[in-house]
Amino acid sequence: MSLADAHPLLQRLVQQFDAAWITPDTLADWADGPGDRVLLLAGDPVRFPEGLDVAVVLPELQRAHGGRFTLAVADPAHEDALARRWGSNRWPALVFLRDGGYVGVLAGMHDWTDYVERVGELLAAPVVRAPTVGIPVVAAASGSCH
């Protein structure tokens, strides 16, 4: 999917708030950049309409934290693969990264006060190992477990 085909609220994040449009080809360059970064995994707007609510409040969350983090929006055609990379399994989700490392995921839509607090906690949290490394596990074809 291209940005031109995306929901207008996702387009708005890119066009008005300088959010990066993330595909598998652009992820590494963006994620490895300096500072705090937040990637929106909005999900299908029909199944998860709150993803569009998050798209609306995300610039406000950025402003509430003094512009401390850079924004990005996952291309909906690649969201599932990007979500698996960080072990996210709820929609919508905000993936927090810092200096190329994983910090955490904040899933769902929240009341404003809770959202500001939780984003602040993640911005203060250390970089940790992501809950998954994205390597699929395949069972061995032999009948023996050893």
Q: What layout of secondary structure does this protein have?
A:
Blueprint: H1 8-17, E1 20-22, H2 24-31, E2 36-41, H3 50-64, E3 69-74, H4 79-85, E4 93-98, E5 101-107, H5 112-124
Parallel strand pairs: 1-3, 2-3
Antiparallel strand pairs: 2-4, 4-5
Helix pairs in contact: 1-3
Can you describe this structure?
By secondary structure, this protein is an alpha/beta fold. It has one domain (3-124): Glutaredoxin (3-Layer(aba) Sandwich). The protein is 36% helix and 19% strand. It has 5 helices and 5 strands. A 5-stranded mixed β-sheet has the order 1-3-2-4-5, sandwiched between helices. A hairpin with a 2-residue loop joins strand 4 (93-98) and strand 5 (101-107). Helix 1 runs parallel beside helix 3 (50-64). The N and C termini lie far apart (44 Å). Residues 137-142 have low confidence and may be disordered.
Class derived from helix and strand content: alpha/beta
Q: Provide the helix percentage.
A: 25-40%
CATH superfamily: Glutaredoxin
Number of helices: 5
CATH class descriptor: Alpha Beta
Taking the alpha carbons of the first and last residues, their distance comes to 44 Å
Rg computed from alpha carbons, rounded to a whole number of angstroms = 16 Å
Molecular shape = globular
The number of distinct structural domains comes to 1
Arithmetic mean of pLDDT? 90
Task: Describe the sheet with the most strands.
Answer: 5 strands, mixed
* Strand/helix succession: HEHEHEHEEH
Strand order of the largest sheet: 1-3-2-4-5
The CATH topology is Glutaredoxin
